[in-house]
Design goal:
Blueprint (H helix, E strand, L loop, with lengths): L7 H12 L10 H11 L7 H8 L41 E2 L15 H13 L2 E8 L2 E6 L8 E5 L2 E4 L15 H9 L9
Antiparallel strand pairs: 1-5, 2-3, 3-4, 4-5
Helix pairs in contact: 1-5, 2-3
Length: 196
């Protein structure tokens, strides 16, 4: 997965998918993208960066279920009073982490104090990622902007965090990693969690 340049094949696939949806938003343009990047101290990963600038800045019909958010927006159910989103801070995970039931261990199984656990969960939600949208019920899709998982798409909810396009143990989220693979997976009508 190349997050530095937009492969022509990925751009073509994204153009085709967004062109087939009349509710696709117009592109934001390079000036808006560069302004957002300067404000947050990041460079968006490709091909998302080129998609937002040249193809489409959002889609009401999805992906995800409640639509692909325009750049810099959060879902209506994100909540007020949350910590500031720090897109330039590295995303803290490199593998799936299930924290369901309040197990106070990190993704590697190391014991965390209650405060360390809460701080770690907050960082998963708010550091190094851009919100792509929601499937409802607190299930948020994030594009990782900073850190070793840059360019990957993750699903983060009250139970944990899992990268799209991986097979971590019992958790299965098949597909091609990255935003182009994630959009194509949705456009093909495939399930997020099982082989079709």
């Amino acid at each position: 997965m190349n997050t530095e340049t937009c492969a022509p094949s990925e751009a073509a696939a994204l153009r085709e998918i967004f062109a087939s949806h009349p509710d696709a938003a117009p592109p934001a343009g390079w000036e808006a993208v560069r302004s957002f990047e300067a404000e947050h101290g990041i460079v968006l990963p490709e091909p998302y960066r080129s998609c937002v600038a040249e193809i489409s800045d959002g889609l009401r019909a999805g992906p995800p279920d409640y639509g692909l958010l325009p750049l810099a927006q959060t879902p209506s159910d994100w909540g007020e009073g949350r910590a500031e989103r720090l897109l330039a801070q590295p995303f803290p995970l490199t593998q799936a982490w299930q924290w369901e039931g309040g197990d106070e261990e990190d993704e590697g199984g190391e014991e965390l104090s209650g405060e360390e656990f809460e701080t770690r969960v907050e960082a998963v939600y708010d550091h190094g990622s851009l919100l792509l949208g929601t499937d409802g019920c607190g299930m948020y899709w994030h594009l990782i902007t900073t850190g070793p998982q840059r360019g990957h798409v993750w699903l983060i909810d009250e139970f944990g965090a899992i990268p799209f396009g991986t097979r971590p143990g019992a958790l299965v989220m098949p597909g091609t990693p990255g935003i182009a693979g994630w959009v194509a997976h949705w456009a093909e009508g495939r399930s997020w969690f099982a082989d079709d």
